[in-house]
Amino acid sequence: MRNETLRHLAIEKLKAIFRRNGYIRVPIEARRKMQGRKYKKGYEVRLVAEEQEELDDIRIALTRIGLKPGKPFAKGSRTIQPVYGKEAVDFFKAMISK
């Protein structure tokens, strides 16, 4: 398959997973200005994987579209795949608005 096709398939996979139960975390700018470096929250997208195979697919898809997956962590019986940075948040916001 061509790279363009693989990228398109990766985007569709991520879009479906995000719409199912993903979410975005953004900092509160007023609080950031008030507290400065003490306020640690940053930009983050969280994708929820129900099983290891799905987590692997998420990580491959993220890499294919040029985003760097963070370290996954357990939350209940599921695994969360975080993606950090404003670029990731902007990408997912644009992707789901289409």
What does this structure look like?
This protein has 98 residues and is of the alpha+beta class. The chain has a single domain, classed as Endonuclease I-creI. The chain has four helices and four strands, in the order αβαβαββα. It has a four-stranded antiparallel beta sheet with strand order 1-2-4-3. Helix 1 crosses helix 3. It is globular and about 50 Å long. The relative contact order is 0.20. The model has no long low-confidence stretch (mean pLDDT 92).
Which helices and strands appear, and what pairs or packs with what?
Elements: H1 3-21, E1 23-25, H2 29-35, E2 44-49, H3 52-64, E3 73-75, E4 78-84, H4 86-97
Antiparallel strand pairs: 1-2, 2-4, 3-4
Helix pairs in contact: 1-3
Q: Which fold name corresponds to the CATH topology? A: Endonuclease I-creI
Indicate the proportion of strand residues. 15-25%
Structural class: alpha+beta
What count of structural domains? 1
Helix content: 40-55%
Cα radius of gyration in angstroms: 14 Å
CATH superfamily: Homing endonucleases
Number of strand segments = 4
CATH class type: Alpha Beta
Main sheet record? 4 strands, antiparallel
What key phrases describe this protein's structure?
single chain; 98 residues; alpha+beta; Endonuclease I-creI; 4 helices
